[in-house]
Known about the structure:
Two copies of one chain form a homodimer.
Chain A: H1 2-37, E1 45-49, H2 55-68, E2 73-77, H3 86-93, E3 97-100, H4 112-129, E4 137-141, H5 143-148, H6 154-162, E5 169-173, H7 179-184, E6 187-195
Amino acid sequence: xxxxxxxxxxxxxxxxxxxxxxxxxxxxxxxxxxxxxxxxxxxxxxxxxxxxxxxxxxxxxxxxxxxxxxxxxxxxxxxxxxxxxxxxxxxxxxxxxxxxxxxxxxxxxxxxxxxxxxxxxxxxxxxxxxxxxxxxxxxxxxxxxxxxxxxxxxxxxxxxxxxxxxxxxxxxxxxxxxxxxxxxxxxxxxxxxxxxxxxxxxxxxxxxxx
Amino acid sequence: xxxxxxxxxxxxxxxxxxxxxxxxxxxxxxxxxxxxxxxxxxxxxxxxxxxxxxxxxxxxxxxxxxxxxxxxxxxxxxxxxxxxxxxxxxxxxxxxxxxxxxxxxxxxxxxxxxxxxxxxxxxxxxxxxxxxxxxxxxxxxxxxxxxxxxxxxxxxxxxxxxxxxxxxxxxxxxxxxxxxxxxxxxxxxxxxxxxxxxxxxxxxxxxxxx
Lengths: 210, 210
């Protein structure tokens, strides 16, 4: 009786293993077919938007990836925090060009004229990068706010993005990305906050939050 | 008449600038109040889940940030691609410890028993890190699949997370994170795909997609 039970258990396990194998085979076939179909090579415009944590760090992770492959990357930061961000130290050390907009947090600023001028100067640095085919990847960190605060005209941003070198990748991060930039983008991810330690009273900590 | 128009336009601009200033002042006050309230310092458990692009790169970006601040970070990768990822080159060079699970893409595998053994070995490496207070940040890349494929018991994962050093930060990435890990987490972001270049036939490219 016990032996029978054991045999039938082992049969069940075998059937399960076969099912798992068949299911995984199907997944593999579907992934392979998609990979076979995706043969275009081009510069990708990636937008990371939404209110959740992880947009800029994701962009910086891709910059790290790019540098790790020997590619040339550059970053324009449109909002500079009051602190030095840790990734800058590492990435600048690895040869990544950084341009940082010369004002504090935009939400700490009450001078629209000064902020607009600073945004325009940072955008001019971005335009030079977006016109330089030796740069493989341009990250425009927190650019979305410059458009939503009307510091930059969206048409000017779109023009530079459309006319950039065809193999150049661009990453734009920030909340509430303008609809017309989303339309132009090839890949768009929206990072949604499910919960955040900060709301539970946890302090922003160096090496993790900045 | 023209002069009058100019005067009234300049009045409107002044009113607009004042309004902008008042609005920004309010935003600043609200942000400052939240910062003042958030005084707890602790290790944060961050989960990056959802189906969109940018979860692992966000984790790696935080690892880069951590290293840039002179912190000690380690990564366990639970799904190893067929390609070498660029961020590993850079981060390992900067002293980040990497453990890579010894199988290919899980969705290319049809051997559940072999995968389970590989997952368990990788998890043992994770447990050692989660028990070592000299490690400031542990990234468990693509861990979620190990739980959803039943390669690892969620209780074992929760135990190690709960009993880790109190100041240690942990990042877990991957789709469909188990509910009980989300409950335990301090910060959870869900990355949702709005669109993806791959679906439009664009090839995965080195230095950007891996």
